[in-house]
């Protein structure tokens, strides 16, 4: 759908995904530079910008991590070009130091940082609310409530950034980034902005001398926000019950007010500028209200800051309700129309207007089967976790496993035999392992394994590996190299040899990096289950730091490249539920390609999902699983 | 009969596994590497072959003995037997331990077509054991010599069973002979049955694989040619020397499961073979069944084996040693059962009570 991002059709309206609208907004602003690290729900933005980079005359990169991406954007900004930085909420924590420094040094060319938050953590390990970082770093933040606003705010964010000489943040959430609605296009500048030479006395320096300037910029932003068209009010002039909302809460609140027929009595103040808060605007509405319900995604951020406004204005006398106030809305989790409507029913005792229900006949109802979060069919991680689990059991030393972030995070669940003892953030596994690996001197004798994927290795494991090597930690670091950033959609990383703009570049070898640090590296194939088990077992018995690369390409990529082999079950050999099997393939190995036929009481292969890796054939104790052309793995 | 999770709870978690190997290679849940034998994943089978064949799950050994050796005169100390001889191979067998009797019996069994194949333990480096199932006499001769590291050789029984073998001879430690009888006794009617001729070894214990690392520290860069227990200690023959290891040190490496063993002489075997401590170069042979007698007679008839009558004093020594092993194991079990381990032997059985009576004051 990239054509919509670059279509030079001002005033035309298209149905756009929020992430498309964000990319479009940047192009309308004449962005020259874009950098990101992938993470749901923000990943599509840079993919699209990369795809149109030539046409739009911009540079786009998948940076090695978020710090690299924001740092790169700051460099571009120094030369007065406009730059867009994109990441998810976890990335904003990775980039904390860069962000706080950027706020002190300020920017020159417009710099907009788009953060995709993930309320309810659908594709994340947490639902961190990125607005705290805006407040902490004293940076202006905008929060779109519609796809149109997503585009317009990004575009305006560049103007604001240049006006204030400050970085501007835009907070999207999953439902904005991945939802679709109509967006009216604006103009695209004929030429993007060219770099300006940096003069001998030009400076961009992050030092506390500039704290006053930093706060001054925040005050200026507040003044601008007081009159911003992104904030508006609907409802009666003297509403006693006021909803203050932002982002997705705007639609949900509107819907709830309509459903409860409260339009005559309830007002909605919708804020698009959520840091610093337009205090005068808010105070004006608070003065008339007796009760205020705050509707916002994730944390009671607006609510607590409104509470602060109330505390500083003794003449305000009202009841504040929300995620914190009386717990009207739960303290965590994503909003939806029902949650907001129920909150309003709770406050007003008003029952919803009867809506005519469409009855679906019972035989037309589709009940979706419950599904585990699991690895894809043929995924090398399934084999890796199988190997690690069985090796730790064989070793009988109660090994401890430090997990990390990627597809293989699911290895902490049933798909990976609940292998993880520890799971933190990207790069945390190896550091936690390093620490445990130092406790041998105090009698800690359990083997320690830390895991990381290839993309995570580049992102945040290299300093930790140097640390572990330098201090000779007694641990096994396993790199699950599937040659992909698979979890977020196959964005290239430094080991791949491709850029966001589709250019080839020299890939960087993980093995070479590890060896250059002075570590001995073992490379093994996770599809060779028994051999690799012996390899892991022997490594666990060695003292000091050991590094193992388990190398096998992501099945989703591999299957695109070659003809898939047919795999089938010989029912005469299959032992099924009996002793000596107990449905080992479908129950324990657990590949979605290995399924169970209740009628025959035998295992079968689901030909649609099977990718033909053939690993299950080597595990079947009865030799009942057959592979076209023999059992060679791969 | 319980299943895999019960095997894990009752046997593996209690570290009483004898590492016989009877449960292996049929089951995808039970996994072995070196001397580790574990349930690699949780099994959901309620009635498992594993539990039914394990020599460390509850068994009425007197009943099993009665079933397989009904006509053999009973003996409390060394189990039922027909005859005891001192024996040695008539010609030199490379790598043999003492008299070379086991190798000779296997050779006889194959050549005289008592069996199609034999299952025994071989080793590439004289230390690390591996099981072989073979019909080749040369391979049998190459495998001569004792292994001291515990190894789950019975894993190959399933190969014999699945390949439809009719008759085979199996050389095993006492725990393995016990498992062979249970394998046979509990074989499911739908599964092929192999007629087994069991050659049981005398065994005091086997060693953990860590012993291999200890050997390496004691004889670095030397090739180990032979390990033996002559009366005066633990002998290590390398390519450079004949060394000795302190017996007390070696004992630290005894496999934990061996402390629960009541059987020194493979009392359920068709024929048992062991060292004869007072006469180096000769073996003790105990014949327990008609099948065992026939094999032995054939070996003598073919002039492969030389036999002599067994000295009375030597038999007394053998019986006393066996009795002491039983009493030690009973003590260990009494304590373990009192501490909550699920009993796998009925210690109130009159034979065991008698053992304790006879060894009162001897075993502490």
Order of helices and strands of chain B: HEEHHEHEEHHEHEHEEEHEEHEHH
Structural class of chain B: alpha+beta
Largest sheet of chain B: 8 strands, mixed
Morphology of chain B: globular
Unreliable segments of 5+ consecutive residues of chain B: none
Portion in helices of chain B: 25-40%
Side by side, the strands of the main sheet of chain B go 5-4-6-7-11-12-3-13
Overall pLDDT of chain A, averaged? Answer: 95
Number of strands of chain B: 13
Strand content of chain A: 15-25%
Gap between N and C termini of chain A: 35 Å
Keywords:
heterodimer; A: 634 residues; alpha/beta; 7-stranded mixed sheet; 5-stranded mixed sheet; globular; B: 364 residues; alpha+beta; 8-stranded mixed sheet; 3-stranded antiparallel sheet; 12 helices; 33% helix; 19% strand
Secondary-structure blueprint:
The complex is a heterodimer of chains A (634) and B (364).
Chain A: H1 3-6, E1 13-17, H2 18-28, E2 33-36, H3 43-51, H4 53-56, E3 59-62, H5 66-78, E4 83-88, H6 89-94, H7 96-105, E5 111-117, H8 131-136, E6 141-142, H9 147-164, E7 168-173, H10 174-178, E8 180-184, H11 211-226, E9 232-234, E10 241-245, H12 249-259, E11 266-270, E12 273-275, H13 279-286, E13 291-295, H14 301-312, E14 319-321, H15 337-348, H16 380-395, E15 400-402, H17 428-436, E16 448-453, H18 454-470, E17 476-481, H19 510-516, E18 521-524, H20 529-540, E19 546-551, H21 555-561, E20 567-569, H22 584-589, E21 594-597, E22 602-605, H23 615-619, E23 625-627
Parallel strand pairs in A: 2-3, 2-4, 4-5, 5-7, 6-7, 10-11, 10-13, 13-14, 15-16, 16-17, 17-19, 18-19
Antiparallel strand pairs in A: 1-8, 6-12, 9-11, 20-23, 21-22
Helix pairs in contact in A: 2-3, 2-9, 5-7, 12-15, 16-20, 17-18
Chain B: H1 4-12, E1 30-33, E2 36-39, H2 49-53, H3 61-68, E3 83-89, H4 101-111, E4 117-123, E5 129-134, H5 137-142, H6 157-162, E6 167-172, H7 174-185, E7 195-201, H8 210-218, E8 224-228, E9 234-238, E10 242-245, H9 247-251, E11 271-275, E12 283-287, H10 290-301, E13 305-309, H11 312-338, H12 350-358
Parallel strand pairs in B: 4-6, 6-7, 7-11
Antiparallel strand pairs in B: 1-2, 3-12, 3-13, 4-5, 8-9, 9-10, 11-12
Helix pairs in contact in B: 4-10, 11-12
């Amino acid at each position: 759908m990239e054509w919509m991002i670059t279509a030079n059709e001002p005033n035309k309206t298209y149905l756009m995904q929020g992430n498309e609208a964000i990319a479009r907004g940047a192009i309308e602003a004449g962005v020259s530079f874009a950098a990101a690290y992938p993470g749901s729900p923000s990943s599509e933005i840079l993919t699209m910008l990369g795809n149109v980079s030539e046409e739009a005359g911009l540079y786009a990169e998948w940076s090695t991590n978020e710090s690299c991406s924001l740092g790169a954007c700051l460099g571009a900004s120094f030369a007065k070009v406009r730059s867009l930085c994109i990441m998810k909420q976890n990335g904003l924590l990775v980039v904390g130091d860069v962000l706080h420094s950027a706020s002190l040094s300020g920017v020159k060319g417009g710099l907009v940082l788009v953060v995709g938050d993930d309320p309810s953590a659908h594709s994340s390990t947490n639902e961190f609310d990125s607005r705290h970082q805006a407040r902490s770093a004293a940076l202006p933040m905008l929060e779109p409530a519609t796809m149109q606003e997503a585009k317009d705010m990004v575009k305006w964010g560049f103007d604001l950034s240049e006006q204030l000489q400050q970085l501007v943040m835009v907070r999207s959430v999953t439902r904005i980034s991945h939802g679709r609605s109509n967006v009216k296009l604006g103009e695209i500048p004929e030429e993007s902005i060219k770099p300006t030479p940096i003069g001998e006395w030009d400076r961009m320096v992050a030092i506390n001398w500039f704290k006053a300037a930093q706060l001054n910029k925040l005050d200026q932003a507040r003044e601008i926000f007081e009159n911003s068209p992104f904030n508006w009010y609907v409802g009666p002039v003297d509403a006693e019950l006021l909803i203050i909302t932002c982002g997705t809460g705007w639609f949900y609140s509107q819907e709830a007010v309509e459903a409860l027929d409260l339009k005559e009595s309830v007002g909605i103040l919708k804020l698009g500028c959520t840091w610093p808060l337009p205090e005068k605007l808010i105070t004006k509405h608070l003065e008339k209200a007796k009760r205020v319900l705050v509707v916002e995604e994730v944390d009671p951020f607006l609510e607590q800051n409104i509470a602060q406004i109330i505390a500083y204005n003794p003449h305000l006398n009202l009841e504040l309700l929300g995620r914190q106030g009386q717990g009207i809305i739960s303290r965590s989790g994503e909003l939806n129309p029902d949650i907001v409507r129920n909150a309003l029913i709770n406050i007003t005792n008003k029952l919803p207007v009867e809506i005519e229900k469409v009855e679906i006949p019972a035989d037309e109802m589709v009940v979706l089967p419950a599904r585990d979060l699991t690895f894809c069919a043929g995924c090398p991680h399934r084999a890796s976790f199988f190997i690690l689990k069985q090796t730790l059991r064989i070793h009988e030393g109660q090994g401890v496993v430090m997990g990390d972030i990627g597809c293989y995070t699911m290895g902490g669940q049933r798909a990976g035999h609940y292998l993880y003892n520890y799971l933190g953030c990207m790069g945390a596994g190896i550091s936690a392992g390093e620490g445990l690996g130092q406790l041998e001197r105090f009698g800690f004798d359990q083997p320690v394994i830390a895991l990381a994927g290839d993309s995570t290795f580049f992102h945040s494991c290299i300093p930790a590996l140097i640390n572990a090597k330098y201090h000779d930690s007694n641990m096994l670091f396993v790199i699950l190299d599937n040659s992909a950033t698979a979890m977020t959609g196959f964005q290239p990383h430094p080991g791949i040899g491709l850029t966001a703009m589709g250019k080839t570049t020299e890939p960087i070898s993980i093995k070479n990096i590890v060896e250059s640090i002075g570590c001995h590296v073992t490379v093994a194939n996770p599809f060779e289950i028994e051999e690799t088990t012996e390899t892991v077992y022997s490594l666990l018995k060695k003292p000091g730091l050991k590094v193992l690369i388990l190398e096998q390409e992501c099945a989703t990529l591999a299957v695109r490249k070659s003809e898939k082999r047919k795999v089938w079950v010989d029912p005469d050999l299959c032992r099924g539920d009996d002793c000596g099997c107990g449905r080992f393939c479908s129950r324990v190995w657990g590949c979605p390609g290995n399924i169970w036929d209740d009628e025959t009481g035998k295992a079968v292969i689901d030909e649609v999902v099977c990718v033909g890796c053939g690993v299950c054939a080597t595990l079947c104790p009865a030799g009942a699983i057959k592979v076209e052309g023999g059992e060679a793995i791969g | 009969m319980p299943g895999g999770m019960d095997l894990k709870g009752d046997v593996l978690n209690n570290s009483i596994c004898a590492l016989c190997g009877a449960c292996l290679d049929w089951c995808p849940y039970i996994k072995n590497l070196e001397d580790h034998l574990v349930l690699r994943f949780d099994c959901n089978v309620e009635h498992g072959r594993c539990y039914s064949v394990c020599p460390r799950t509850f068994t009425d050994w007197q009943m099993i003995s009665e079933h397989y050796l009904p006509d053999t005169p009973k003996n409390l100390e060394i189990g039922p037997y027909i005859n005891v001889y001192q024996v040695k191979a008539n010609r030199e067998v490379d790598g043999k331990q003492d008299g070379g009797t086991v190798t000779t019996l296997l050779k006889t069994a194959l050549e005289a077509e008592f069996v199609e194949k034999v299952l025994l333990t071989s080793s590439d480096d004289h230390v690390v054991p591996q099981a072989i199932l073979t019909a080749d006499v040369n391979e049998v001769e190459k495998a001569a010599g004792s292994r001291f590291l515990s190894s789950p050789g019975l894993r190959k029984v399933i190969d014999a069973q699945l390949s439809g073998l009719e008759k085979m001879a199996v050389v095993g430690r006492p725990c393995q002979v016990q498992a062979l009888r249970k394998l046979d006794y509990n074989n499911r009617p739908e599964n092929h049955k192999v007629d087994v001729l069991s050659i049981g070894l005398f065994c005091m214990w086997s060693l953990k694989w860590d012993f291999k690392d200890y050997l390496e520290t004691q004889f670095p860069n030397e090739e180990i040619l032979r390990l033996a227990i002559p009366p005066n200690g633990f002998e290590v023959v390398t390519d450079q020397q004949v060394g000795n290891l302190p017996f007390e040190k070696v004992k630290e490496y005894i496999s934990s499961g061996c402390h629960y063993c009541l059987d020194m002489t493979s009392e359920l075997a068709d024929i048992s073979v062991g060292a004869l401590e007072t006469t180096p170069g000769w073996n003790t042979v105990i014949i327990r069944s008609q099948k065992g007698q026939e094999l032995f007679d054939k070996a003598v008839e073919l002039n492969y084996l030389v036999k002599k009558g067994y000295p009375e004093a030597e038999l007394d020594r053998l019986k006393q040693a066996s009795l002491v092993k039983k009493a030690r194991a009973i003590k260990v079990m009494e304590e373990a059962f009192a501490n909550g381990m699920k009993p796998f032997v009925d210690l109130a059985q009159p034979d065991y009570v008698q053992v304790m009576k006879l060894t009162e004051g001897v075993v502490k």
